[in-house]
Amino acid sequence: MDTTLNGSRRLIAFLIALLGCCSLSVAQLSLPKDAANIKDLNELGAHYLPAGYAQSNITYADFQRLLKQKCERANAALPEGEVDAAQLSSNIEKAAMQLMQCVGGLINITTVLDEVEQAKPKGDLDVVFEKYCLRLPNATSCLTEFNSALLPCMTREERNHNAMMKRIMGKLLDFVCYKNGDQIALFIAEQGPECLEQHKDNVGKCLETTFGHYLPSTLNVSQLVLPDLVLGPRQCVELHEFEACVLKHLETCDNITPSNIVESMFRYVRRESDCQQTINREARDHSQALLRGGAASPFSWSSVTAAAISLPLALVLSSI
């Protein structure tokens, strides 16, 4: 049972990490004072983050400074004094606390894990997830309100990506709750949590290998700057690299179903963004280079020339 429970926790963390890549950056910009409902997730950071980030010890004062700094940077082009960055950041803090209260009223992770363990032997997983998936409209409403508070502190590029981010988030939630949780129930029933548990170290290595170049080897809080939340060409290609790496390991599990479900989730991200076009173009360019007799340099997904923008995957797991 311990292995299954740990695997279920890693499943939840994995979903959060994936959603974090393309969500409204709830975890990036909100540091709840009371994280009792997600206590178990704090322990998972050590399995998915570089050593210097597993115990980051970011204080509430650090969070306030980072948030104000981001609001100032996003509105730097406006005349001085026209925007009160301190007030904007305070608005986000209040909205974040409201969001956490909203989510806490809808779902308690510890309770969900207990219910999953009790329902699994009886084959009643669908009953558990149906109950929580019926609350999805309320969760979506909470996220929409929080996003409204975030907008004034977003850069022009982030705002341009915001509609796509919301669309991806909505589709991923729809996927998880397809037929009132049929997909997630199937994942657990087909040994998905055990598969993730078996490859937890490999998933962590995939994360670090793919996105590690965005992160310094150690976290210096005094020099930390919140990254812009965008899903540009480079991030699309790196997300595809991460997908391929994770699936390569999950496919070695005894049951192929968990790998297929995870792959479907990644496809949802690509469908709701421009990522598939970027991936197809890179693959086409690589094929043409091979047909020309290898005159081009060896293919690398990381050769995309878009500006390097930090991805908040690490903060998703470390700050909540």
Report the β-strand fraction as a percent range: under 5%
Mean pLDDT: 74
Radius of gyration: 20 Å
Overall body shape: globular
Describe this structure in a few short sentences.
The chain has 320 residues and is an all-alpha fold. It contains 18 helices and no strands.
Can you describe this structure?
The chain is mainly alpha-helical. The protein is 67% helix and 0% strand. The chain is built from 18 helices and no strands. The chain has helices spanning 2-22, 26-29, 39-42, 45-48, 51-54, 60-74, 85-106, 109-119, 125-133, 136-150, 156-176, 182-189, 192-198, 200-211, 233-250, 257-271, 275-291, 313-318. Helix 9 (125-133) packs antiparallel against helix 12 and helix 15 (233-250) crosses helix 17 (275-291). The two termini are 26 Å apart. The model is unreliable at 7-45 and 295-320 (pLDDT under 50).
